[in-house]
Design a protein that fits this description.
Elements lengths: L1 H19 L8 E5 L3 H7 L7 H20 L3 E8 H6 L2 H19 L6 E6 L7 H15 L5 E9 L1 H18 L4 H7 L2 H5 L12 E4 L18 E4 L9 H12 L8
Parallel strand pairs: 1-2, 1-5, 2-4, 3-4, 5-6
Helix pairs in contact: 1-10, 2-3, 3-5, 5-6
Length: 260
């Protein structure tokens, strides 16, 4: 009986939060640092904290549904940094990569998925099977009519992304026959942005990080310069719809100054 009352109260509160949101004041692009999978597993009493990666991967599917329901057409998720892949214990990394292959990539590649997949990061640091699964998901959705765009940041480093963008721009200019003085004169922030992993997409309006950590850890260093930040104390697998809606409500209530 008590559980039923709680469920009813939760549903009513969720509907109330949703009704308070003005579609005109929601982010066009939402970025998320999905942190705290292992800590959640320990909190829940699992003997092997790596099981949190599976719950975290499963939960992404649900959160993407919330984004689609809210009409948020661009989402970027921070799955793993270059250091995560290179420096963590091999068994943990292998488990995380399997979850990405079996849950994330497989589901996103389905014809019914409303998401068009874009990859952001150094795929060369990933295991062959993970790289292959992600590229298949990207290829399967490349020519689709999907109205939602999902950037998967994996093997990612924000500073390295900027270096790569500069390198790509310089190479493009050089092939066009421009010298260094001409390139310097033609250099603009917009032209650099076009060579980032998220080139052609709007910068994130809101960045959410779960687990209570108050830092971005090199995530979208360039793109998030004027983003609003929301830090949530719950771990990623425990990130509820009310937490999501509260973050959107907080964003909508802010007076964005864009650096002013």
């Amino acid at each position: 009986m008590l559980t039923s009352l709680r469920n009813v109260a939760y549903a009513l509160y969720t509907r109330r939060l949703r009704a308070q949101l003005d579609p005109a004041n929601l982010p066009r692009h939402l970025a998320m640092v999905m942190d705290g999978n292992r800590r959640w597993a320990r909190q829940m009493g699992f003997d092997d904290p790596r099981v949190g990666h599976r719950y975290g991967a499963e939960h992404l599917d649900e959160v993407l549904r919330w984004c689609a329901e809210a009409g948020i057409r661009h989402v970027t998720v921070f799955v793993a940094s270059v250091d995560n892949v290179r420096k963590r214990e091999a068994g943990e990394v292998g488990n995380l990569m399997r979850m990405i292959e079996q849950v994330v990539a497989e589901r996103l590649a389905r014809p019914a998925s409303p998401w068009r997949v874009h990859l952001a990061g150094r795929l060369d640091v990933l295991p062959d099977t993970t790289r292959h699964a992600l590229k298949l998901a990207e290829a399967a959705t490349r020519d689709s009519d999907a109205e939602f765009h999902l950037n998967i940041a994996i093997g990612y480093d924000g500073r390295e992304e900027i270096v790569n963008a500069f390198r790509s721009l310089l190479e493009e200019e050089s092939r066009a026959g421009y010298g260094i003085d001409d390139i310097a004169q033609r250099l603009t922030a917009d032209r650099i942005s076009a060579h980032l992993y998220t080139g052609g997409q709007p910068d994130p309006d809101l960045v959410i990080r779960t687990s209570g950590e108050r830092r971005l850890s090199g995530f979208l260093v360039w793109q998030a310069a004027y983003s609003e930040l929301h830090f949530c104390d719950v771990y990623w697998p425990g990130f509820r719809k009310v937490d999501f809606l509260r973050a959107l409500r907080s964003y909508a209530a802010r007076n964005r100054r864009f650096g002013a």
